[in-house]
Amino acid sequence: MGVKGKNEKRGKELRRRRIIQAVIAVLMVLAMVIAIFEALFYGNAMSTPQPGQNVESGR
């Protein structure tokens, strides 16, 4: 019984680690998407300046 308990605990830890890795992966993807959108919006702001955006970019 003791070994079975250890295996269950190890399984829970692995599952928790997998969940953490999944969350990190999602955050990385979100960061990439946000960076792409920022580049697109700043590219649009350069051709058609909007109030506040061109001041933030500082270009």
Short description, anyone?
The protein has 59 residues and is an all-alpha fold. The protein has 2 helices and no strands.
Word description of this protein:
The mean pLDDT is 78. The longest helix is centred in the middle third of the chain and has 46 residues, at 2-47. The protein has one domain. It has two helices and no strands. It has 59 residues and is mostly helical. The N and C termini lie far apart (67 Å).
Percent helix range? over 70%
Compute the CA-based radius of gyration. 22 Å
What is the number of helices? 2
Q: What form results from the Cα inertia axes?
A: rod-shaped
User: For the report, how would you describe the main beta sheet?
Assistant: none
Number of strands: 0
Number of domains: 1
First-last Cα distance: 67 Å
Q: From the helix content, strand content and strand pairing, which structural class follows? A: mainly alpha
**Mean of residue pLDDT values:** 78
Low-confidence stretches: none
Estimated share of beta-strand residues: under 5%
Strand-and-helix sequence, N→C? HH
**Oligomerization state:** single chain
Topology:
Elements: H1 2-47, H2 53-57
Which tags fit this structure?
mainly alpha; single chain; 59 residues
